[in-house]
Amino acid sequence: MDHFLHESLSELMDLFKSSLKHVDSVIDIGTGTSIPVHFFADHYPDIKFVTVDIADLRQRKELSFIIYDGKIIPFRDQEFDVSVLNETLHHCENPETVLREASRLAKTVFVVEHFVDHEADPEKNIEEEFFSLKVLNLDCNIYKPFDEESLFKLFRETGLVIKDRFEIPYHGNRKIKKYFFKLST
Ligand SMILES: C[S@@+](CC[C@H](N)C(=O)[O-])C[C@H]1O[C@@H](n2cnc3c(N)ncnc32)[C@H](O)[C@@H]1O
After folding, report:
1. Is-contact 115 147, C-beta < 8 A?
2. CA-CA distance, 43 to 95, in Å (whole number)?
3. I need a surface site. Which of 9, 26, 46, 178 has the fewest CB within 10 A?
4. Per residue in 44-69, pLDDT tens?
5. Is any atom of ligand 1 closer than 6 Å to the C-beta of 57?
6. Within 13 Å of residue 80, how many CA atoms lie on the same side as its CB?
7. What is the pLDDT of residue 64?
8. 102 with 109: CB under 8 angstroms?
9. Residue 33 burial (10 A CB sphere; 0-12, 13-18, 19+)
10. Would the CB of 79 count as within 6 Å of ligand 1?
């Protein structure tokens, strides 16, 4: 893992420390390269981590993984303590379906999303997103970024309430802001 990625994941780990207290099981939905969730799993060996995606784009493969159809994730209601959607929703064809599944599988849902600054050029932002995906070797062809209004509408429509939220430091060159949301019904 390169130094820059290691530093940002260590920074994330510090930010998430309090949110992971009393958590025994986590499902990472849209695990992508799976590098971030493996980094957390390495540091929290007592938590059971399971990963799912609609395609296998993993660069680390030690954790249990399932490919699903993008609609129904094959686990029981409330089988996990936490569902994680780390930069996943904006790549989903139907984000509402995925968020509803996340909420069915766990009482608490962690969402990481970014918002594009108002003064940023939307075309340039799309170009930069696809460039970042290419660098990570992530083959995603959908990118529908949220703004605060559309994301909060999605949370409301899914019956989820924001219990905690904070900004995640972003060190890249894009005009975006990243946020963590802790949600529950
Ligand atoms: C930017 S990547 C996510 C990065 C990853 N969560 C991480 O922590 O680095 C977006 C992922 O969303 C996945 N995805 C797209 N539609 C999905 C769906 N309906 N359900 C779950 N994952 C989906 C893509 O296959 C891709 O792996």
Report:
1. yes
2. 30
3. 46
4. 999 999 999 999 999 999 999 999 99
5. yes
6. 26
7. 98
8. yes
9. middle
10. no
- The percent of residues above 90 in pLDDT, for the chain, comes to 86
Q: In terms of DSSP bridges, do strands 176-184 and 80-86 run parallel, antiparallel, or are they unpaired?
A: unpaired
Q: How far is the CA of 43 from the centre of ligand 1 (A)?
A: 22
Ligand 1, from 12, 65, 91: best to mutate by most atoms within 8 Å of Cβ?
91
| Spans of all domains in the chain | 3-184
Interacting residues of 185 by C-beta distance below 8 A, sequence separation 6+: 103, 107, 159, 160, 161
Q: Which residue has the tokens 């980094």?
A: 39
User: Residue 94: what pLDDT?
Assistant: 97
- Site of tokens 């009393």: 22
* CA 71 to ligand 1: nearest atom: 19
Residue ranges of alpha helices (H) inside the chain are 3-16, 35-43, 95-105, 122-135, 148-157
Q: So what's the architecture of 3-184 in CATH?
A: 3-Layer(aba) Sandwich (3.40)
CA dihedral sign of residues 140, 79, 60, 183: positive
CA 141 vs. chain centroid, Å, equals: 17
Q: Strands 176-184 and 161-168, how do they pair?
A: antiparallel
Q: Give the pLDDT band of residue 7 (cuts 50, 70, 90).
A: confident
List, for residues 130-185, the tens digit of each pLDDT value. 999 999 899 899 999 999 999 999 999 999 999 999 999 998 889 999 999 999 99
Structure tokens at 56: 């296998």
